[in-house]
Design goal:
Blueprint: H1 3-15, H2 22-42, H3 46-52, H4 63-66, H5 73-85, E1 93-94, E2 98-99, H6 105-115, H7 119-139, H8 150-166, H9 170-183, H10 199-217, H11 236-240, H12 255-258, H13 273-289, E3 293-300, H14 302-308, H15 317-320, H16 324-334, H17 349-356, E4 359-363, H18 365-372, E5 381-387, E6 396-398, H19 408-422, H20 429-440, H21 448-455
Parallel strand pairs: 3-4
Antiparallel strand pairs: 1-2, 3-5, 5-6
């Protein structure tokens, strides 16, 4: 793909009207509500607030009240995105690359809280950032080259923020896209042992902050850097992708927002969500026969093995919530996985650590095949127990976890329960229900400030 076609695809997409049909509007509102819940949940702890503001604030309180003290759009975007991403509980999109499209909602909040607008314009920005990041994830793998997916957050957020800031000025959008290519991606080493740490929780916030900064810089007169993608010596594809193309894997429309994956029941890396569901179904049998369990088998898709199968020493909670073995062991032992499950202070920590050593993970080639099939997009896992007497438990297979679009109707009431729980430290049940129902009933011509007013303390 030439640089002309790459940035022109983005510009042409931004210039077209976004289809806000009934399904898409509902998807936007559902994604927004789920994301707001993540923000309020993280704001209940001083640690994510400190990281989100680089230690400037650490008090626990309403994040939308606290945000009134943050005047720089870069800092505001970083603040919200770090809270969104902190507990790895926000929505997901899986393809060649792995994405958390709601990371970009921090960018949209930053712009509209600073500049105002309508709920329709706000919704369009969400649809477009989801679509750009998700479609890049369908077409281009960064992880196989060792780079982190938040580069696509920076690209999606930067392009849309530049468009909003410049009122659609093509030259500024083009310059922003090329400056982001010049920035390049970061290593993803902080998501994997032995270097895993809190950076994986603030990396998207950092990407959003930089996207906003580049958008503002690109509004100044400068070169367009048109040759950066294809330059045979210094170009992006040559340096970062070993001369393979960065490409969108599908036409840009409104598909991604309607097909995002919600983390409904468990704050666990999404490749393992169906494994946790299967393990919960096996938990009763495991607990009744745990003294004769020889080993535990997980059959999964190849990306899960590459990303989250880790039987080495797990250094911290950030390491544990990306361990397939750890989350399955916890589900078998306690019928559940929560954010507290990953802490050393968790009452069952020692038992989980012991049990995960009995787990063997292997690839099922069919699961890998259906993971990559665009029409299916399965995220399948199978779990069973081998007993000392040579018998086996039932083999439990879950192909589509609860947050998958194929199970959307089943998931919606659970997403609402998750929202109520995530906001419970800030709002009573009546206030939380009012927020939920009011956002679902917002008209497109609603003033964006009505959203913020709804979220602040009364």
């Amino acid at each position: 793909m030439s640089i002309t076609s790459f940035d022109n695809l983005i510009i042409d997409y931004i210039k077209r009207d976004v289809s806000l049909d009934e399904e898409t509007i509902f998807s936007v509102k559902l994604a927004l509500l789920d994301t707001l819940g993540c923000i309020f949940n993280a704001a209940s702890s001083p640690q994510p607030v400190s990281f989100a503001t680089t230690g400037q604030y650490s008090e626990i309180g309403n994040p939308f009240e606290l945000s009134k003290n943050i005047t720089d759009p870069r800092d505001l975007g970083k603040f919200f995105t770090t809270l969104i991403r902190w507990y790895d509980y926000n929505d997901t999109f899986l393809a060649k690359e792995w994405a958390h499209p709601s990371d970009n909602i921090g960018t949209s909040l930053s712009y509209f809280m600073s500049n105002g607008g309508s709920f329709k314009e706000f919704s369009e920005s969400i649809v477009r950032t989801y679509e750009i990041q998700g479609s890049l994830s369908v077409g281009t793998s960064l992880n196989k080259e060792g780079y982190d997916h938040v580069f696509f957050v920076k690209m999606a957020s930067g392009a849309i923020y530049a468009s909003l800031l410049s009122k659609g000025n093509e030259e500024i959008i083009r310059r922003t896209v090329n400056n982001i290519l010049l920035d390049g991606p970061t290593l993803r080493a902080y998501r994997h042992a032995p270097n895993v740490g809190k950076r994986k929780s603030w990396a998207a916030g950092d990407a959003v902050s930089r996207a906003i900064e580049i958008s503002k810089i690109s509004s100044l007169d400068d070169e367009k850097y048109n040759g950066i993608l294809k330059d045979s010596t210094w170009g992006f594809e040559n340096i970062y992708l070993e001369n393979t193309e960065i490409t969108f894997g599908k036409p840009l429309d409104n598909w991604v927002i309607n097909n995002v994956l919600f983390k409904v029941l468990y704050p666990a890396e999404f490749h393992g969500q169906s494994a946790v569901e299967a393990a919960v179904q096996l938990a009763e049998e495991y607990q009744s026969k745990k003294n004769i369990v020889k080993d535990i088998i997980i059959e999964t898709h190849e990306p899960a093995i590459r990303i989250i199968s880790n039987k080495d020493v797990l250094m911290n909670s950030s390491d544990r919530d990306h361990s397939l073995e750890y989350m399955v062991a916890a589900a078998l032992l306690f019928n559940d996985v929560t954010s507290e499950t990953y802490e050393e202070s968790f009452h069952g920590y020692a038992d989980i650590e012991k049990l995960r050593k009995k787990i063997t993970v292997m690839e099922d080639p069919d699961f890998t095949k259906t993971y990559y099939e665009f029409e299916k997009r399965e995220i399948a896992n199978r779990i069973y127990l081998n007993f000392e007497d040579g018998t086996q438990s039932e083999k439990i297979t879950v192909r589509y976890p609860i947050g998958h679009p194929k199970r959307r109707d089943e998931a919606v009431p659970l997403i609402q329960e998750k929202f109520m729980k995530n906001t419970s430290n800030h709002f009573d049940k009546d206030k939380a229900n009012k927020i939920w129902n009011s956002i679902l009933n917002f008209e497109m011509n609603t003033d964006f400030n009505n959203l913020v007013n709804l979220l602040v303390d009364e």
